[in-house]
Queue: 2 jobs
Job 1
Amino acid sequence: MVIKRSVSLADEVARAVEAAAREDGVSFSAWLSGAAERQLRVRQGLRGVAAWESEAGALTAEEIAAGEALLARLLSGVSGMASRVRRR
Amino acid sequence: MAVREGLVYGVGALRAAARGDRMVWAVHRAALANGIVPVVPAAAVAEAFRTEGRGDRLEDLLDGAVIEPLGDEGARRAGELAARADTADLVAVATAEAAARGNCAVVASRQNALRAAADLLGHELILYAV
């Protein structure tokens, strides 16, 4: 089921969404819906991380930095192994 | 160097998360904080729930992931690819296929089947081996 909602967007945001939707071959509504869905999933996911941390202990600043660094390496095309990363 | 746009979790990543591997949780948190929602093939979810007792931890991880169903076409593709890779490991094949299709890096255990499937797809496997 689809629900119609009237939303207001800043002019530049609306233009950027139009361009992105055109590029992705989907409608303006479908693009916005996808973006909202992704954002909701991120929000839910961070709650999942917090739930795990409440049991296992919060990730330390060092662990968070290590996770960020590992993600950056993977996205830039560098493979890694658990043991090597843990030693850093 | 092959730039990647997202992450795919294989069953090894799910097992590691269920067992409390803090680096897996840290990279998962980093992905979400950067607006990246990792993808998990449904076959990997099934295998993880088969083998891991900590379903609650798996649920926490999967709250921040997209579970990709196999579907008709995907099932055919996975089966054919598994045959070409000479493996019965459909989870690894589905993981490699999802990574190639989405131009994603992979978090999984190191497996020959994963690498063989990626090679057959012409996809350079970028792997964090847990």
Note: Confidence is low (pLDDT under 50) at residues 84-88 of chain A.
Job 2
Amino acid sequence: MSVGVVTITPPRAVSAKQLGLAGIVLGAIAWVITLPPIEVRGMLPSIVLALVAVGFGAASAAAGERKLGSEAIVVALLALAGAAASAKSSAATVESVFTWSALAAATLRYATPLLFGALGGVISESGGVINVGLEGMMLMGCFWGVYGSDLLGWWGWGLLVAMISGGLLALVHGIFSIHLRANQIVSGMGINFLALGITGYFLEYHYGPNGTPLNISTVPNVNLPLIQHVGFFGSAIGDANLMTWVGLALVPALTFFLFRMRWGLRLRSIGEKPRAADSVGLPVLRIRYVAVVASGMLAALGGAYLSVGFVGSFSNDMTNGRGFIALAAMIFGKWRPWGALWACLLFGFGNAMSDRVSSVNPTLGTLFEALPYVLTLVAVAGLVGRSRPPASDGIPYVRE
Amino acid sequence: MSLLEDELEGHPLAGEEESDEPALRSPARLTAFRRGFGGFLVPVLTTLIAFLAGGLIVLATGHNPLSTYTSIFDGTGLNWLFPWVSGADRATAAGNLQQTLIQATPLILVGLAVAFAFRAGMFNIGGQGQYTVGGIVAVWIGSSFAGMPPVLHVTFAIVAAGLAGAGWAGIAGVVKATTGANEVISTIMLNWIAIWLGVYCFQLGGPLQNPKMPSTPVSSNVVPGAKLPVFWGSAALQGLDVGIFISLALAIVFAVLIKRTRFGYEARTVGFNPEAARYGGINVGRTWIRVMLVCGAFAGVAASLDILGWKFSLFTNDIQASQVGFYGIAVALLGRNTAGGTVAAGVLFGALLTGTSDRNINLSIDPTLVQYLTFMLEGIIILLVSTDVITLRLLKGGRRIGVTLKRRPAKETGTSEGGAS
């Protein structure tokens, strides 16, 4: 017997993975210490921390954790840029941008529509139907929500109309991708165009050049009198929109449904191995239809949040690519509700940040608009890596 | 870990994965049909069905579909092809047709950018970002280097824009090849980064903002020497520039690349089945990167032709409002990811855009309605393109076709197709 090459791994106090994670945390700290409430003035501490983080990252990469190590280095460099920005601005500027409670409130505001869309995507794709049409379904909810609220006089009816419209559009997607076995990405893109056309057409048809009426009933905010005056929490969540709470509540609910409840497990089994599910008697196609329609309804709620929940009016192409961001959040979140939530919060935080920065420095604010997308790209490439979709996602099912 | 990775390769976002049953969708039979007369007839039929459905919507909302379509058609300038149109009408038609072809120029190229990725089993949603980056570079080079000889200047700007687009798309390719990150998500992210980068460059106080117009968020103007020559119509009235020929030439390049080169073969093989390609000795990661580079180059050149051909400057609004990447996906899909199909679909979409623009619609119809009607038409077209079943059925007079319908159990048919056939 040949012995071959024996690799000797010396026992380590810390693993390469821990080293890499420590690098990331240290890198982040290098920036955070320049922000309120710590507000270290001057660059030196940040530089030191960032250098240590880079060292950890490099060590981790050398020890085999290439992705994580380079991730740590990137984070450290970004943090250094952030620290430099803080050092260049006055203390007052930094404080006005990083009013954490206001940032948190804005983050939730921006994340809510994305969250509904992403959760819709999770449902549909758990059942094995790719939903690139989230954008269109959101847009439908956006317009028909306003229409319903205007026509029937109450925001609740508006949301109901929005859900029906999104569900109907999703049904079209369902017919094409489930029965007609279409390429689901193509069909989803068709759905997006269709929604853009339908909403624009009927906006013009019903309301003409004046646009939607100004005084429609909108979804109220939830006042939490108990914590309204409790500092950070008071401003952050003391007066959040009802739909934000519904969206947040949906995350554990959907997780429980998908991973603990009978029909959720069945749905996922259909997304993984439809043949096996079929062989035990599950109605594969019917369950897929339900999942797709539910997905459309959720996405439509996200769109309705923009119009009925927030602005109180509709303008053409109002979702402006948010459906695609929701799709990205779903993939980023590894097809899981909690993952989708974190991804949506990241996007929301980026939007909120750029708003705050814009109010101080418009030029810099523009660059900050790109930040969440840069972070996502880095994260998808590094930390997250290959995320695993449901095994039969996108594959039409045909019975034997 | 390797098992997990294997499963990922087959994810349909990464490739057009068919069902695991070989007899279900025999690619050979489908391909044979597409190569034959059906490859031409199905898209045409698809378009006709879409127009029919759109006409019903127009009718249902109390307008006359026939006059609407006539008016769109006249707006496209395609009536110029009719010999009996003469005099002032003919001049108008010529002008409209020039606009149609100007619109078609970038649509064809961005369509090719999407189509090439599709052929290699990737979904390039990043056409918009690649186009934006190409536009930034084109307008920057076009508005600087004032003394350069015109031919050199134009070539420089176009090539640089192509390279910029290629580099931008290449990021997604490299990230996919090295870390396995899904190109759908990375190209979407790159779109937004490109858009905000563009806004940053040309906004008030931005590094490339026009210094002569300090209160307008716009780039400097392209110098006269870097403008593409106009060969039909007057340059002052935005006549047709030679960009359309570059676009068509690149479509030929696309066809040759896909069909006649080793790289094209590798790309198609990877698109068909990355695992098999890897087993066959093809470096899949490298192919992904190269494919994305080519895609990005197409989209980057598209932007440069717009900038040097008729836009001559870039407003931040323009960058944010541009939908060309979105259209490019539709063009590629309708064109079935072939060179010829993409050119035809690009002209069709260019015609729809021109025919429904405000200035071309006669006042008896609300132009906004017509514009959104176009989106609906496009949506229906793409939906129908996504599945061959409906049109194939119509063609064969309702008989079952072996290709896609063969194994369908009786109880599943009828409901969804009854309406269509």
Note: Chain B touches chain A through 75 residues (CB under 8 Å).
